[in-house]
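DATA SHEET
Item: assembly model
Revision: 1
Owner: S.N.
Input lines:
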Amino acid sequence: MRWSSAAKPSAVKINEKASREKILTLESMNPQVKAVEYAVRGPIVLKAGEIEKELRKGIKKPFTEVIKANIGDAHAMGQRPITFLRQVVALCTYPNLLDSPSFPEDAKKRARRILQGCGGNSLGSYTASQGINCIREDVASYIERRDGGVPADPDNIYLTTGASDGISAILKILISGGGKSRTGVMIPIPQYPLYSAAISELDAIQVNYYLDEENCWALNVNELRRALNEAKAYCNPKVLCIINPGNPTGQVQNRKCIEDVIHFAWEEKLFLLADEVYQDNVYSEGCQFHSFKKILYEMGPEYYNNVELASFHSTSKGYMGECGYRGGYMEVINLHPEIKGQLIKLLSVRLCPPVSGQAAMDIVVNPPVPGEESYAQFIKEKESVLNNLAKKAKLTEDLFNKIPGVHCNPLQGAMYAFPRIFIPSKAIEEAKAHKMAPDMFYCMKLLEETGICVVPGSGFGQREGTYHFRMTILPPVEKLKILLEKVKDFHIKFLEKYA
Amino acid sequence: MRWSSAAKPSAVKINEKASREKILTLESMNPQVKAVEYAVRGPIVLKAGEIEKELRKGIKKPFTEVIKANIGDAHAMGQRPITFLRQVVALCTYPNLLDSPSFPEDAKKRARRILQGCGGNSLGSYTASQGINCIREDVASYIERRDGGVPADPDNIYLTTGASDGISAILKILISGGGKSRTGVMIPIPQYPLYSAAISELDAIQVNYYLDEENCWALNVNELRRALNEAKAYCNPKVLCIINPGNPTGQVQNRKCIEDVIHFAWEEKLFLLADEVYQDNVYSEGCQFHSFKKILYEMGPEYYNNVELASFHSTSKGYMGECGYRGGYMEVINLHPEIKGQLIKLLSVRLCPPVSGQAAMDIVVNPPVPGEESYAQFIKEKESVLNNLAKKAKLTEDLFNKIPGVHCNPLQGAMYAFPRIFIPSKAIEEAKAHKMAPDMFYCMKLLEETGICVVPGSGFGQREGTYHFRMTILPPVEKLKILLEKVKDFHIKFLEKYA
């Protein structure tokens, strides 16, 4: 009997009535979760989804497609996967392919090694909560190579479900105290909103330090000190988060800046979180990625024996752009042994990171080397992505700076532009009448008139009275050019309209 | 220059001294995280890991391998993946294989459909936070088929990172209030420790209701009422969690019991969480899986228009045992529209569930059908796993019940035995001297003497003065027999030693 044909009589006789009041409502729900904001997938993205639906229904718009430039989602923008990475993951997924002549030996070698690290040689087994041993060993070797020989210990590596999972886990352990002793977490403004969201969820205190827009979004230690000293009046600042290369701001920190930050953390007893997921995305001449770990070690034993540091990497960015695999790792330095136990316990509740994501992470840290069959193609693919990104970074900066009322700092790294936009006071008034932040109003108009979806600066934080938006530079060059021209035309019209 | 050859002089001159006090310690850490316990991967599993290391070093033990019967990890126990599932995921991973004649057409068809749902046709793109549309549609169709036509709406389906992720997310939204208004969460005892861990982490109040061991671990509504009424004195009980089929207890709830529970939840205004990850794992004659959703609808509109329900499923259990993919889904009924928005916001912070796990989930809900090329092999593989599990469930029950001082209820479903063990008072005293729960002491001895790793009942909760352990029935039949014989010999010796 199909349910729809005749409902079974109820076991208990009751009067039918309309739907009664819910148990779970905005009023009764967890207020910390209610306070969470996450702009990268916020109201503007929901609106973009609605517009896409309307387009599919044939409703006429001044454009034919929505371009989602709101998120660093490389493959969605047409970037092709790195062949070698996918070959290895496919071999691990379906080991019958290990007998296929269409797969190169070096990919098979890696797949066999990963499978040997899996229970029952299957990606379908749970792994240790910290991740597969041999992959953690590969991560440690990668870090040693990257950092010119600074030692890395696989026991300090935790594979994670994307970098976000590691950042959330370590913050979760760090937050404690009530009232004025509640843990304060220092974050850059502008920031990546995972930080503010995690801080809300954990009911911790967000302590803002401002990046210096006039100085290419540099981090200034005097500003760190100001923020810290003010925060001490109302909380216990215990954590300092750094995003390098910056998201959404794209700056790449120089060695001196990192030394200053580490010294500051040492002096003020702050736990350092270094979000280094864009470590492969550095474009500007004269800029170079330095890991916090490396600089910490170079500063000598007083620092590297004491400063507590967690740093994060991911499969989602760089040249691979494998966001969907949710691969990542965290390296911890000077974590108290008892806390390591606590961290493993906490991670074990979610059992283990997705194993195909762990496999993808392995290929990021253990790619083909010279002499291996797949090396040439791998390098070609990698460099093609990175060279293109460098080209697009420059193109975007140049084009934005040609628009009146727009200023864009150099995109030294990462994969976003975060231009400052002038919004006329008449537009600000109209935004207020709509109960919108002025840059949200601007971005909504941009979306409605051009189909381009970008995220308002207010979702990342910005100095009072300044307005920005974040846009990825991931679309293919030709498409990016069209997109930038459209933004230009929109902006000029916007200025005219609200002059 | 290699770092190891010569450390760069520090930028700031300071006196070298020994490692100073840490910022993050057991005293300063988040007390809620400290309070979390997770027995399935707890101290006994860490001990098992140590013993494995010793065995690898050649240290002699009374056994040659550790058997990890602590966790439902099918592939690690030798179960083979379902071929069709892996073929589809491999095709999605490396779409060049879509041209390969070695893959069946029905697998290719599904892979193409999944890829069309992915940005840029790549598993490497982020998906909507709620999961890929077409997979949520497949989940809804699956639920309709399973529940005899009860309607399911893809908008009510959320793909998750295993079932644990969904359970944690919905609990996170539900917890609020302070002091006596703090949310109480009713959980069965014995329970799966994800629940107690999530409750600790969220600083909610755990409200225990006891399953009736004398009556095959049945759930009794009078006991629910007792627990609820007592809890009202110290918290605001708002959530009722059900695990059916039971973990660790293996009971399968009958229709009458589910009706009673739903009526109770309706009457007492409780939000229902139905953990139904073992829905394919039902073995005993006369037992059948009924989903809470189906019974809710059969009880009539007063119920199905009002009772708020979230139910959970996973790729990890059933016949596929794909734990490593971290696939799962949650279906919500009567969730307030504003809360749906809040849930999507919360989920969006972790971006999206792993996409290969979403693909694996799709195959679980959309397997080959009669007439398709892969149907025969699929059914053969599926039935082989399930028939074997049914055989092992019976074998385990029978063998345990032959051991003096051991009583084991029928394993009606799921994949564990949870036998009650008699522990002599002399052993209880010795356990106390070691500051161990008596069943932890027992399980540690079992591990040290036989290499068999099981989880003490105290990790799941049990009535005061009773002792149990949880053991999976996943090892292959021949190995399981040897394992059960070893447990028997150990138990008899244990009784003799502490008589």
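QC remark: Residues 375-401 of chain B form the longest helix (27 residues).
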